[in-house]
Amino acid sequence: MPISDWFRAREQRRYTAPSEPPRGSESLADGVWVRCEGCKRTLYAGDLERGLGVCPSCGRHHQLTADQRIDMLCDPGSFDEIDGDLRSGDPLEFRSGKPYAEAIEAAQDNTGLPEAVLTGRALMGGLPVVVGVMDFRFIGASMGSVVGERIARAFESACDRRVPLVLAIASGGARMQEGMLSLMQMAKTAAAAARLADAGVPYVAILTDPTMGGVTASFATLADVIVAEPGARIGFAGPRLVERTIRRALPKGFQTAESLLGHGMIDLVVERGSLRETVIGLLVCLAAGGE
Amino acid sequence: MPISDWFRAREQRRYTAPSEPPRGSESLADGVWVRCEGCKRTLYAGDLERGLGVCPSCGRHHQLTADQRIDMLCDPGSFDEIDGDLRSGDPLEFRSGKPYAEAIEAAQDNTGLPEAVLTGRALMGGLPVVVGVMDFRFIGASMGSVVGERIARAFESACDRRVPLVLAIASGGARMQEGMLSLMQMAKTAAAAARLADAGVPYVAILTDPTMGGVTASFATLADVIVAEPGARIGFAGPRLVERTIRRALPKGFQTAESLLGHGMIDLVVERGSLRETVIGLLVCLAAGGE
Amino acid sequence: MSDVARRFVMEFERPLVDLEEKLESLKHLSVVEGAELAVEIAALEAEVDELRTTLYTSLTPWERVQISRHPERPHTDDYLADVFRDVIELHGDRLYGDDAAMFAGLASLGTRKVAVLGHRKGRNTTENVRYNFGSPHPEGFRKAERVMLLADRFGLPIVTFLDTAGAYPGLEDEDRGQAWAIASCLATLSRVRVPVVTVGIGEGGSGGALAIGFGDRLIMLENAYYSVISPEMCATILHKEPARAAEASGCLQLTAQDLERMGLADEVVPEPLGGAQRDPVTVMGAVGTAVARALDDLGALPADALIASRYERLRAIGEYSSE
Amino acid sequence: MSDVARRFVMEFERPLVDLEEKLESLKHLSVVEGAELAVEIAALEAEVDELRTTLYTSLTPWERVQISRHPERPHTDDYLADVFRDVIELHGDRLYGDDAAMFAGLASLGTRKVAVLGHRKGRNTTENVRYNFGSPHPEGFRKAERVMLLADRFGLPIVTFLDTAGAYPGLEDEDRGQAWAIASCLATLSRVRVPVVTVGIGEGGSGGALAIGFGDRLIMLENAYYSVISPEMCATILHKEPARAAEASGCLQLTAQDLERMGLADEVVPEPLGGAQRDPVTVMGAVGTAVARALDDLGALPADALIASRYERLRAIGEYSSE
Ligand SMILES: [Zn+2]
Ligand SMILES: [Zn+2]
């Protein structure tokens, strides 16, 4: 299906069956009007929504919810969640700042999601894939035990079934409220990624705004092909920490997708409107040799 | 055998049995007095010779002949040449400048060597190795068909016998008088190096002054461990070409072993007096795991 | 003929172009002054035709080198646009930078998916600066190696296009390990378990070409060259006179025909009289066909046999005697 | 006691040091003024002893973090000098640079040859600047990965020493792919077919420690820490007050004891009262023994079983429920 048809199909699906609003779709369409952080203009929420969260005025790619991301990436109705039953514990009984247990509950209430990542089986352009999407609203899409476990299982599921893995990534980094259990998710997901690579099964990562810290330094950058959305902030250390370290102002564009493309770190910067098509094109290529 | 004992043994061997001077040893000891290119002082040739070609005044590491290199690296009397019967042809009938056939003959007469590399089986600290040493006096130790063939066979011999390979390298690059046959020796030796690496057999390269062009860009830098002698000039493009390209003076130390160490390209810069010991130490380590 | 004046003229074409220009002005006169010049024009046309045929059918190696460098000659980007479909460029070495002088990507060739590598040259100054005149930095070779490994992992054949005067001889390139980057490409290219087909489309300059320039088949365009050293540099070394490049070109045996004779090239794709720039579409079509045919042949081999034969192919190169 | 004044004093040691200094001056007086102060001195000595014991046997997590950062604590270089023999440092990533903040090399441990990786900290300002205070650049991680692969190829066990506040958060480090370099280390370390034994000897700061910080065994010194984030940064994020690092240290459960309880550390090597800097030789000896024992255990496993168990070990980390 060409991308234009698919957009039309998606529109129809969304607007002819409005009885059940998609889980978590309120973020961008909270009110009727929203403010674009890029151009500071006030936009009609419906316009932004229809434009896949891309500002019609300045082109800024706003964060998407997990469900919006699934909708824009997967063939309609094809997403079949796996491991949706996993829930975070509070292994450190972390009480400094907002108690962790409360933070999780608030995030769940706010997003309607069980955790910061959704993983499942799906189709993309008719190709079976394993897909994972992260939702920044959920405690900054930080990687605790559940995120690490679902990501690792997604790698394993792709490996076992020999179907490509597509991850749409956003994250503030590790989830400090889970301490070392969180840090070790980096090693765990990287090990799972290494196994998938050794098995010769494709893995395409889509880095979205923002992708930082322990997630960038583990599974996110171990993909066969790394695609990023325009303007996405991508890095390891937070920009404020870098600024304090170097004691001067950061250059314009530092840690953006475009800057990292120039530094050789990512394969492609692709606008959201072409993203699905590009990823499908990549999967078709990477899966071709195995036939 | 500690290196000091070995030096003593070597001295004895050289001076108690002077009846047959080693092939090609005239280069450094041509007359009684030689001039050091490092400090411009005039040195007693015997002193330079006894110091393994290292200037006692400024420490400059002068080029060694293939035989001197074998003497300083291998256990006394252990070197057993292989493929010594290979001789260069003149496939392009290259006549521009000095005719190639004449250049080869002159080099053979001048050095007593059949070609710019000697390869063979030997012992180093009692360990069986395959060893190759290049002699810059032979048409700048450029890589033609014979050099490429002997190097490739050395890799294969090390691979077949599963003994480490040690190459003491010097070269001006490809041998242009053999045209594309010369260029392709880069791919041939690199392919042989790749096979040795995949077989898990150690390969230590010793880069000496100078190691340039097609040799640096093929087998020389594919070693598991790269050791260089102090002050050795190592690079791809010749310094004059680089200077013409960038249109300013080259910085001090450009393309030296020390500079490349700082740029992360080589493992160790080792003085000639410790070289044998260091290489043996490396071989002992790298060979240990296979036991 | 009206575009004669705008055409890029190679040194050796000058006599022909002078004649062509004379013919053109005669024709212009003829329109103005009547038909009395017809005989003279016809004679001149015959002379032009003869010279053109003589000139282009007895090209010296140095003249071929000039054709190989012709700015209007089809470049890697042209092949990507004309011969392949669904091209997805892959950027960056994931280590230091993205080198525009080296194309790397995935594409369709007919019904086949392949990885494509190629040196890039521009058509104008802006492009040439961007592509560094086709001379890669270490990050270009490291990107190429990354994509070789990607192709290897996913069983995609590799098609490479050679069009470089050589790796860039810059100061920082040396510091960042130009030699290391090329050597690593060579080792990787020798061991990838997928078919590798190389096409010499223009310049094949030394190690910078070789880094993506060998494999299971080498196809050369009629006027492409492949050489251990540039003719100019060879002349400089031998005679301290770059101007003796023509002589050096002959000595180096760098033409497609030389390579075929030496058994290094498997196939020479003919070009129209005067060079590929005279009819790029036909030439590119022929290249596409030749590549597809080579891939058909190679696709029949199991991977083990493929890399064994690639190794034997390399091992057989060289001329020497055993005394 | 005469070196009290010259000793580096950690914040929490101040009351003890004050008392020790008072005791010392009393003793000095006693020498000059006669023996009438003996009773007072004896009382003070008892008080000092009691305080010392209390202080050092009830260390808070934050106090342990301070001990882990003690400048006189044995560092990687000290272990290389004392625990290993025939150390050969290997330099460079073969891509961009050689990072002194990361040691990589080959060495003997008893009769065994191993590869050693370790963050490096200095003893003085010159060394600290040279070692970038133990915070590696991307080229440090890439060197480490290169040596991991070398060890893998030649079947050499890997021993790593953790002692870093974290990867360096510089501008060029980001541009050169700090995250990519760390991720690549993690993937490689997870799949090398040789035993990997990690020792936390001081600071274990976040991704920069983890890059060489997991494997088949994790041994922690009693006062080493290992944390997802530095206590100061955690306090800044939670409360915008770095000064609340003590509180954050407790919350993060970053001590050797915490790690052992959580099943992440396999063994805790005890330190003398006050920290490893009080008796480095004994501590280093104990570490050497622990590493050798771990390698003995692991050496019995075939490579397939080894990497399978390493993977299972990682896969088991995490706490969650299934609803
Ligand atoms: Zn906007
Ligand atoms: Zn001197």
Provide an overview of this structure.
The complex is a heterotetramer, with two copies of chain A (291 residues) and two copies of chain C (323 residues). By secondary structure, chain A is an alpha/beta fold. Chain A folds into two domains: 1-62, no CATH class; 63-289, 2-enoyl-CoA Hydratase, Chain A, domain 1 (Alpha-Beta Complex), CATH 3.90.226. Helices cover 38% and strands 17% of the residues of chain A. Chain A has ten helices and ten strands. The longest helix of chain A has 20 residues, at 179-198. Chain C is of the alpha/beta class. Helix content of chain C is 49%, strand content 15%. Chain C contains 14 helices and eight strands. In chain C, strands 1-2-3-4-5-6-7 form a seven-stranded mixed sheet. In chain C, β5 (196-204), α9 and β6 (217-221) form a beta-alpha-beta unit. Chain C is globular, with a radius of gyration of 22 Å. Chains in contact: A-C, A-D, B-C, B-D, C-D. Chains A and D meet through β4, α5, α6, α7 and α8 of A and α7, α8, α9, α10 and α11 of D. β4 of chain B pairs antiparallel with β8 (320-322) of chain C, so a sheet runs across the interface. The structure holds zinc ion (2 copies). One zinc ion binds at residues 36, 38-39, 41, 55, 57-58, 60 of chain B. The site of one zinc ion has 8 residues of chain A, from loops.
What is the overall number of helices of chain C?
14
Shape, principal axes of CA atoms of chain A: globular
* Strand fraction of chain C: 5-15%
Neighbour order of strands in the largest sheet of chain C: 1-2-3-4-5-6-7
| Proportion of residues in helical segments of chain A | 25-40%
CATH architecture of the largest domain in chain A: Alpha-Beta Complex
Query: What is the domain tally of chain C?
Result: 2
Helix-strand category of chain C: alpha/beta
Average residue-wise pLDDT of chain C:
94
Distance between the termini of chain C: 60 Å
Number of strand elements of chain A: 10
Low-confidence stretches of chain A: 6-29
Kindly report the name of the CATH homologous superfamily of the largest domain in chain A. Answer: 2-enoyl-CoA Hydratase, Chain A, domain 1
CATH architectural name of the largest domain in chain C: Alpha-Beta Complex
Per DSSP, the total helix count of chain A is 10
Q: List unreliable stretches of 5+ residues of chain C.
A: 1-5
What is the succession of H and E elements of chain A?
Answer: HEEHHEEHEEHEHEHEHHEH
CATH T-level fold name of the largest domain in chain A: 2-enoyl-CoA Hydratase, Chain A, domain 1
